[in-house]
Structure formats: structure tokens, C-alpha cells
Amino acid sequence: MKGLFYPRTPTGKASIVPPVPWHYSGELLTFEYRADVRAVAALLPSGFGLADEEPGAVAAIWAEWQSCSDSFEEILDPVRGQYKEMFLVVRCKFQGRPYSRCVFIWVDKEFALLRGQHQGYPKKLGSIQMSRPVLVGKGGPKLEPGGRFGATLAAFDRRLAQASFTVRSACDRPGFVNALPMAHNRWMPAIETDGSDSLDEVVTMSGYGLERGRCFTGDFELEYFDSPVEELMSLAPREKIAAYWHEVGVSWRAGRTLSRRNLPEL
Amino acid sequence: MKGLFYPRTPTGKASIVPPVPWHYSGELLTFEYRADVRAVAALLPSGFGLADEEPGAVAAIWAEWQSCSDSFEEILDPVRGQYKEMFLVVRCKFQGRPYSRCVFIWVDKEFALLRGQHQGYPKKLGSIQMSRPVLVGKGGPKLEPGGRFGATLAAFDRRLAQASFTVRSACDRPGFVNALPMAHNRWMPAIETDGSDSLDEVVTMSGYGLERGRCFTGDFELEYFDSPVEELMSLAPREKIAAYWHEVGVSWRAGRTLSRRNLPEL
Amino acid sequence: MKGLFYPRTPTGKASIVPPVPWHYSGELLTFEYRADVRAVAALLPSGFGLADEEPGAVAAIWAEWQSCSDSFEEILDPVRGQYKEMFLVVRCKFQGRPYSRCVFIWVDKEFALLRGQHQGYPKKLGSIQMSRPVLVGKGGPKLEPGGRFGATLAAFDRRLAQASFTVRSACDRPGFVNALPMAHNRWMPAIETDGSDSLDEVVTMSGYGLERGRCFTGDFELEYFDSPVEELMSLAPREKIAAYWHEVGVSWRAGRTLSRRNLPEL
Amino acid sequence: MKGLFYPRTPTGKASIVPPVPWHYSGELLTFEYRADVRAVAALLPSGFGLADEEPGAVAAIWAEWQSCSDSFEEILDPVRGQYKEMFLVVRCKFQGRPYSRCVFIWVDKEFALLRGQHQGYPKKLGSIQMSRPVLVGKGGPKLEPGGRFGATLAAFDRRLAQASFTVRSACDRPGFVNALPMAHNRWMPAIETDGSDSLDEVVTMSGYGLERGRCFTGDFELEYFDSPVEELMSLAPREKIAAYWHEVGVSWRAGRTLSRRNLPEL
Question: pTM of this prediction?
Fold first, then answer.
């Protein structure tokens, strides 16, 4: 049976996720700020600790991606490759090393949701919106001082976050919060639903072939809104650090398991 | 950390799936037919065999669900509880016992997709459409002889299936293909993406508190359409068995693991 | 060239709206209350006045429809016939007679949006959600005392309204606010966009073949939320009147023009 | 009462379309070809004739727009300004002058649909997908020789069109079919639905402030698929002319009425 993910079939053609590697090209808006460090700590599971430096730093990131497999066929059928996401990243420590960690994330396509689950990203579906830079006309922002971008997130018919970014100047690097290898938990509750996990891993990963494109820093506003099924408010900004619009190209093939605990074999 | 599924947090409020039990009320259109038995066999993974009786039987099922947790709050915020699904079920044998098994399935909400993954349903997102019975007016079909229902499935902007059902008479039971306990694989590829699986289980489950409502049988048409990322065509109908419109109420709390293979602990 | 609405073609096959008559079967939640009568008056255009009785009464209505043309083919391709809507109705007086009038309305399909424009309903697109009654299971409300329904409205990724309804008892009639013939304006600004209207009519209409199904009254909660592009807040409930869950079947063929003002012919 | 379009209110805040002017910035894929000239003629209403030159030429255009009003606030809330469209343009003659004319068009937002109706574009809703050029990474096409773009259209859960474009070289102009002022009919059937039109105009319009950005020509494939509610097949490509990826910035304020026929005033 072939297929990285389900459904597995003799050909693998119907697999919800194509074989690795996966290639990504995207435009991102990154908002870095300091939140209540206790709220960050409360989101770290057993075995994880706060980062030694900037333990309360958070990056709220909006991204518009095109992605494809090594067949590149998704580029010609873009409904199968384009998606947007919004995610919150904190920094942490595991087994004595510093990592970045995604604590909340929304995407707008199923293949991105499942691909993320493979990687330990806790993906939900949402409506992610962000301005795109324009070269001509007045319908969008320009990547020049004063250019203004907007970004919003909604899920289950409620607005969860909105942000604006005003370009100040070109810069070299889009921040530090999301710059470390990721450390994520992969959990799957046992079908007995008795509190035990059939899958209980900590994994780490990084992309390869990273290319950075244009990068601009600027001023920003960012606010979250409450929902009965979200917990963003505890991570609300207390002190701004910096914001960026930037381009990234990257590929992904595999990660590495840092810890694994099993239930007994049957 | 609380939360059946990710993201796990101190309160569990943001978990993509509420705690079990889950309650379901739905209307279903079930189309039972015989397909090429070799195509059914080809979709059964290692350890599974064809059913002794009716090994080539398939049920194509459209369902419109309302679902909720024990808090019942999803009923008051129906965007969090209503969803539709279309799925194909075959029969099979595992460890000497007969089971039903879902080989392909599409839903239109994220919580249904992830809940299904917990249960081993290979859920994708799609657009699922089906007529609803009406008591007054001419805008929809009536549950009386001659009433005609339509049902369609699409994903990635391609129509994948369409069916029609014409009521003939009331009946007792909505078919046999999906009537056994389910046997599903739960797989999660290792983050090393080296062909090994961190999670490799066969699980079985049934609902509880089953209530059957109205049930009608009738004539039907069913056809599938091809897609670069689906494999429905091999399961196309060769011989019709029967079709049903029916109502179901059921709850779900847990399943049972039939087999589990582990990778080494770290 | 054939086709009620655009695009008009030699066959009319591609018309965004099929030929009349149109048939509807639906389930509705109607919430009747009194708002600030000055807010109702402010939404009545020139030539219209407040109703003599209950001039501040508003009906907020959620409806889930199936609709079709006289070919009934939409019933077999339900994506072309099913839609939901939420609308606010007030009462008013025109040319000395009392009418009902829709002041705000959202639907979730394009054919409903354009059909409504033909009829003078000021339709926008939105996400409309409402519970459906169930006969079996615990996944939805039952049409019996204590059964609880929810209903929500969102547009542009913001929640605009939410309501709940608790069944008290069966009843005969689902309220009075939306019970009169409708009086609507049909406006199309001149392409010169100079403040003049190429189309400036007041029309009235009623359905035919009305069938009422089950009808229940009960208690309710209803609240609106603000948006930069909506004006619901001024019509917020001040005093509740009554709420209903009810079924309707109705057909529509034509209306009648009550007034028409033209720009010069060219 | 304020508001260009409905609903008209004392403030105009809730109008489905903001006041003119409207500003647009977009990326377009234009596919020009010759179709059966009789099929083009069949789509021209009374008073229109075939163009003297290239009467069978068609442009199939995919566009991804950002748009805003003079307040520019839609740029900061991009769900209210971003949309995609796919449309087919032919050339024609009216009152002795040559015009471009949109015969079929799909958009994915309501404000674009209604704005288009004001302008005589026969807009429906659809799912429009197109590759975006990238500067870094392998997830999308680059604007350099060999870069490959895909574009698709679907409506009512059926794929209607798909195309691919391969960059050959930079060029000056993105074709000729859509280069003339537009001539469109604006029709609104009388509410009596008796075959007469309350609004019956031919209008022309052009944008202002046109800025052209990058422009590339290349090779292409384009195919249409049938649907029970579309008429694309008669306009299928018979002979390719040329294809382009290009950027446009443009604003729009008003058009001019070329002919108007009225029903009697009441």
C-alpha cells in the first residue's frame, strides 16, 4: 500500500498528502511582541521549559503560500497547492536546547492541515486574509515607506485577530522568535479514549534550501478577540518588539524524533 | 494539559475536538452495489482479507449530521456542530472476524475531519450536497413513493460523484454493508519520513444508543467521475443492490485497539 | 435572446436565474420584537411612512430553503437549489396601504442573491447557520417543549447576529411582521454614477400556493454585533414580542409595480 | 438615503458597494484565441453586430484583484477588497463603433458581483484559481522563460475551465480583444415577469489612471468543460492567438449610457 498519509492505496494517488519533499514559496507578515511569560509557560507540555532568553516572546505570523510536491503538478492546478495560514510561535527549551514552537495555527486547506499534523503543528481551519504588495495601481499596498498592509483571522464565523503593518524600511532578517528549529508534540489519543496516547512523540524539524527574498520592517497594531473555542487572549501583546513583511522559499523532507513513549504492542 | 486532540492547553477549551462522548443525529442516503471484487481486495491493507459473503459489496453513503458534545453547546452555535459527509464502505475480515471498513470519505468541517482521524476514517474535505425531505411545498422531495432525492460530491473544484434516489416504500433496515463494527487502520508516518510509521494500529468501534428513525428504500442511479487525486473509478458500480433514505441517532465514546505495532521508544 | 436575468443567450441555459415560477420549501426561525421606532423610520425611503400599528416592530428571520424551477432539476443537483438566509423585516405604509418590507438580508448562494435583487430584496452574501429539528438522537433539538435551537449570522469574517429559541408549544401562526405583501424599492444607479437612478421602482409581491407546516412558539434571545459595513445595531431589540419555528412551502411567479420613475430615453 | 447600491440607509455605511471611485491592482492571465464566429454572433443582443476585424476573437482572462474605495480602508481589511475573477471577452460593433464586450464572467466575492452588475458585467459566483509568480523558492512559477502557470474555474461543484501558460519572453502589450471600451447591456426584468424589462440600457465605460506593470507572453493550453447551467462549449478555442501574464493598476468612476428604453412611468 502506498501513500504517506491516509488513504493508503495500491497506487498512492489518492493520498491526502503527496510524497515528500514539499516545496514552499510564500509571503509573510510577522508580528513579534512580548506576552505574559506565565501564559507562555502554561502552554508548554511536560518536558518543556521556558527559553532562557526572551521567554515571553511571541511571533504572530500570517503567511500566503504556494506549495507543491516534486512532481510540481500542483502549480498547474493551484487549488491543490495554494493556501494561507496564521500561527503563533513561542520559544522554549527541551532536553536542554532552545527551540521554536507553534502553539496555535489555522490554515484554509485540508492538505495543509494534515501535512501540519504530520509535523506536529496543531492546525485548525480558518479564514486567513492578508494584503499583497502591488507594483502598479492603488488597490493594494506598495513595499515602500508608508505602505500599509492588513491581516485578519476568523474561525467558526468569529473574527479572532486583526493586524496592520506600515512599512518603514528594508531590513535583513524577519525576527528571531520563529528562527530556531521547531519542537512539536505529536499526540494521538488511544481509541479507548481513556486518557492514554497511542502516539506520544516530541519531534524537531527544519526546512532546507531556504531562500530569503525581500524583507521590510515597520510599525504595527495587533489585537485578538475572544471565542468560546479559542485561547488567544492570554497571549495578547503586552510590549511590541518588531514587525516584518518578508518572502521565503523553502523545502521540507523530514524531521527527527526527540522522544517517543509507547503503549504496549498488541 | 487538557484536550483530547491538539492543541492541548491548561483548560482544553481550544482543543479542536471536544471531549467524548459525541452525539449525532443525521439523515442518510445509502447506495449499495457490487463492484469489482479485486478492486475491493486491492484497498485492504496487510492483515485484512475479503469478507466471506458479498466480498465485492460497497455502500456509498451521503449523510447530513448535527453533532455535539455532552455540553450540547454546539447545538446553539450550529456552525460548530453541523456537517455533511460522503463515504464508501466495504466489508472485510480481520483476525477471523467480519467488519465494515471505510475506504474513502469526505467531510465539510475540520472538527469532523479530525474526529474521524482519531477513529481511523481517512477523511478529506469536500463539498457534499444532498436533498432534504420536505413536508410542505414543492422545493424538495417528499418521503412518499416517487419522491426524488439528489446527492453530489466534489473536491478540489471537480465533481467526483452524483446520485439520485427515488422513494419506493418504507422499510425496516438501511442495508448490510455498513452494519458491522468498523475496522480501521490508524497510521502516522514517522517524522523521519523513511517509510516507517510511528503509529500503526488496527482499531474497531461501534456507536451506542442507536436510534433508527424513518427508513425508505427505492431505486437509484450512481456515477463517479475521475480526478488526478482520487481513486473512485475502480469502485464503480457493476450491479446495484439497494438504496435507502434513513434517519439515525447515535452516540460515540470509545473504540478498542485490535493490533498495535511500535517503533522503539526514545 | 433568452434568460430572465443575465447572461442572456440564444438558449437561456446559462441564465443565472431559471425561468419563473420558483418553488420554495423551508424551515424558518422568526424572532419578533420592538426596536426604536425612529430607527425603523430612518430606513424608509421617500414615499414610505411608518405603519399605523406596531410601527417599531421588527422580525429577524433565519430560513433554510430548498428551491427549484418548474423543471425541478435543481432538486437532483441540490447545490443549485439549497440556500440559507437571514433577514430583517419591518412594517410600513406606501400609497396609504400597509406592507411588510425587508430592510437587510443575507443569503449564501448567488442565485438567491440575484433572484432577490429582481424582487427588491437588498441581498448580501453571508454565513447563515441554524439548528435543524431531529426526530432521533441527541445531536439536535426536538420540536417539543424545551427543545433549543441556535441561529447565527456572519459576513466578512465577523459575527453579526446570534439567537436562541426554546420551544414552548405548538401554535397556529408565525407572527405578523412579515405577514403583509412586501413593498420594496428596485434601484440601479445610472452608469454615469451622478446620483441619478436608471431604475427607480417600488414593487409589491406575494407568493402563491402557500402551505404552512408545523409551527411552534417559544422563548428567545437575540443579539446583534457591530461591523464597519453593517447597520444592525440601531435595530437592536428593545422589547420582545414572540418567536417561532415554522415550516413553509410557497411559489412565486410575479409581482406588481407600484411606482416607476424614469430617466430620459436615449 | 445614501448608498450607491442597496441597502440605502441614512449613512450609506451598509451599502453593498462603497462610493466611487474604485481602485484596482491586479495580476492577469489572458488567453486569446479564435472561436466559431457564429457562436460569437449568437451571443450579441439586438443592436449589436460582429466586429469588422477579428470577429471571432475571444479573450479568456483570469484575474486576481485587490480593490478599494477612496477611503482605502478595504486594504486594511482585505476580505472586503480581494477577489478573483475569470471572464470571456469578445469584440463587437454598436452604433457603428467597435467595442469589447464581456459575455460570461465569474467572481468569488459579493461586492465584485454587484459592482459588476452596475457595470453590465453578467457576473456569477465561482471558484477561480491561478498561480502567482514567485521570486524565491520552488512553490510557484517564476516570471522567466519556462515558468509555468495554471488557472482553473469551477462553479456549482463542476470544473468549467482549465488553462496553463508557459512564459516565453517579456512583451509590451497584453493582447487586443479586451483593449477597447466595453459595451454592456444592463437589464432588469419587470417585476411582472412578463418578458418586459424595467431597465434596458446599453452602457460603455473605461477605467482611468491605467498603469501597466510587468507583461510576459508565452504558450498556452486552454479547455472548457460542460455544465447543465453554462454555455462555454460553443466558445471553445479553434485557433490560438497569444497568451499573456501581466499586471494592471486602474481606477473607475463612471460610464456613459449609449441607449436607454423605458417602460411607462407609474
Answer: 0.98
